[in-house]
Amino acid sequence: MEHLTFTVTDRQFHLEGFPDAVKIVRLTGPKAQRLADLMLHQEDLDATLYYLDAINHVPDQDHRLREILWESAIVHLIKCFSDSESRFSLNTAQAYKRDAGALQAFKYFESLRNKHIVHDDNSYTQCLVGTILNKREVSPKIAKVIASPIVASVLGQENYQNLHLLATQARTWVVAQFDALADVITRELETKSYEELLAMDNIVYTTPGVSDVHTTRLRL
Fold first, then answer.
1. Residue 146 in domain
2. I want to staple 208 with a disulfide (CB 3.0 to 4.6 A). Which of 73, 167, 172, 212 is the partner?
3. Domain span at 178
4. In whole angstroms, what separates CA 139 from the centre of its chain?
5. Among positive and negative, which fits the CA dihedral 30, 35, 41, 44?
6. What's the sign of the alpha-carbon dihedral 15, 48, 109, 114?
7. 80 is a domain residue
8. Using an 8 Å Cβ cutoff, are 186 and 9 in contact?
9. Chain centre to alpha carbon of residue 98
10. Each residue of 141-167: pLDDT tens digit?
11. How far is CA 149 from CA 119, 124, 146, in A?
């Protein structure tokens, strides 16, 4: 599995690094769809690792930016294991080989994402409401009604290492699955004649419109 460099002109792809290529053939069907899903999972896991690395380049005093990167890293990891109509979800038992420690750490980050980062549900976010009472001889008695939000910080070394390990292990599994499936597809395509391959449709890209934000993308 590797990232390729290409340009898009009039919905057509030009791939760099393949001087003998004459076209990029479009693949469809269950195997092509699974290959696409695996690549999208790798993108999310790479994003997790990128954000984690970026945290190390942000000064400690810039708490807000560090938290944004931290939360983004968690969201991209859990996204790979969440239900989706557009791609298959990774399985924790497969990705972590039933490692009890890894599974426990994953469940922690899953709840952190579901009940704290994306939805405000648990006690990791609280708001303390009270009033400031003046001295007995002061009028008015109430100086001010206040509300103070408090968000627990979970960006510590242990959590950082656990999240990095989870993303790395899952990525290793994804890459192995992608490479194995790509080999299968390659062998199948090699059995076709050159004329059959040349007659297959070109790969194309359709830019999504505003209305596409509401709909599930089509399967390959």
1. no
2. 212
3. 6-121+153-214
4. 56
5. negative
6. negative
7. yes
8. no
9. 22
10. 999 999 999 999 999 999 999 999 999
11. 16, 11, 10
Quote the tokens at residue 108: 């922690």
Structure tokens given for 87: 């791609």
Q: What is the DSSP string of 129-188?
A: EEEEEPPTTSSSSEEEEEEEEEE-----HHHHHHHHHHHHHHHHHHHHHHHHHHHHHHHH
**Both tokens of residue 28?**
């469809």
pLDDT digits (tens, 9 = 90+) for 7-52: 666 656 667 777 788 888 999 999 999 999 999 999 999 999 999 9
Reading the block at residue 93, the tokens are 């038992």
The pTM of this model reads 0.89
Which residue type occupies 129?
V
- Return d(Cα 29, Cα 44) in angstroms, integer: 23
How many other CB atoms are there within 10 angstroms of residue 80's CB atom? 24
Tokens matching residue 106: 């994953």
Q: How many domains does the chain have?
A: 1
Non-local (6+) Cβ contacts of 203 within 8 A are 13, 24, 25, 26
Asked if residue 1 belongs to a domain, the reply is no
3-state secondary structure of 33: helix
DSSP-derived secondary structure letter, 191:
T
Residue 12 lies in a domain: yes
